[in-house]
Amino acid sequence: MDRLDRQLRLWGGFGHELLTSSQICFIVERDDDPLLLEVQRHLLLAGISRYLVFHSDRRHPPSRDGFAFINEKEELQSLNPEIKPHWDFLPWSRIRTQSFKDTSVIVLINCGNTHVLQELSNKREKCRTFPPVLVTVVHYPLAYTYLWLKEIHFVVTTNPEYVVPDLRINEPWDELFQYVESLDFCKMREEELAEIPYPLILSKALRETSQDERPLHQKLDDYFLKYSAQALNDPNYRQAKRYARQVNRTSELGRQRAQQLLSRLERYQCLNWHDFFNDRLMALCQAVGHFLNKYHQLPLPSEFPDMEAGTQIYNDLKMIYQRKAQEDCRTMEVILAQLGYPDFPKWLAEKFCDNINDWILLEPDVSEPSMPGIYSGKALRRYVSEKEKIIPENEKKILGVLARFSRDSYDTNTLASFFPATAFLGGVAAQEVVKLVTHQYIPIDNTFVYDFISDESITIRL
Prior knowledge:
The chain is α/β, with parallel strands linked by helices and 462 residues long. The protein has 17 helices and 10 strands. It has helices at 3-20, 34-46, 72-77, 114-126, 174-181, 190-193, 198-208, 216-224, 235-243, 250-265, 276-295, 311-338, 346-354, 377-387, 396-402, 412-415, 419-438; strands at 23-28, 50-55, 86-91, 105-109, 133-139, 142-148, 153-155, 360-362, 447-451, 456-460. A hairpin with a 4-residue loop joins strand 9 (447-451) and strand 10 (456-460).
């Protein structure tokens, strides 16, 4: 399996396209910072080829980072021969005139210069739109990142490890209802009953035991074992027993979750977007709101899970679900056209509908118009002393880790000596950049701290 195949499995075709068309901006003290090299190494392997690097134009003593013996540009280019990387190196003074219009993510790397941070804050405040900023620092024994958002960030799919399939067993549409009604368990032999997919078993049981007020998982044996005494040993029936508890929950929970997310989006309806993908996802969310109001249901995802069943009856059922998913997606496209998006990308509408139960959004912290003062020692000590009065007892360890930030300065010439910390944070920062660019997987919200001495990490929202 080659590298591209692995990436397509991770991010899909659209995610890979977003990566290859993105531009990443780095703001650093020195352009040979080992953390910069480490982050770029991961991003080049992911297929990102355009980089804008702002750095101090003052002369630095020779680096003691162990990279002095290589030609960094040649080494980085050799990592991914399939792309032609391009770098633009500019002095810090050019930040003021930079629009950042084509920049996907800004990454601050070991940059504690007060003037630069203030300049970036001013630039961000004056711009109507601005890319997400990722602050990354190795301050041994700590390594930390902070995500600073100007606009909300949509995650089109969180890629959860475990997904409960949304099969609408308790809310069938006409075609599914008629198919379930056409089955007569009384006329089937036991070997035929052993091939029935579990959604059909649950649908029949739910419908024919409607007078019994017990939960479905409690009355399923009474209903089905009268047709097949051996069913307890059948894989399809064991699967039905396992999913019986979730029949009445999946669809309703999905609607409630979507309505909560949509209500959070109301304040952003008229926002201009830096991220084109965010703009398109906002349109999809508006369409989902109309879909919910009209049909009182979410679009059906097209993915149909594997299950213990006979091949023919499984394929018949799968086709019923896929036809419904395609119909719902076409309905979404009609709604999008009515909202002013007649040429909306079909693949994106399909992707969104397929992940309708897995999308989320991250909101910016509106209380932080400028670069957070938490990253200076004095501000942090003040923050810790204030939080100590109100923080719950089970979160006291957070203060212990944060208190180690309280040194007022760090020597960037010594940062590179900490290879494990640099390698670790380089991987974390690059991973966060890829999440932000592809809108897949959940970015850290919003601060991640790792302590190399205690081998502990925390994620907190500041």
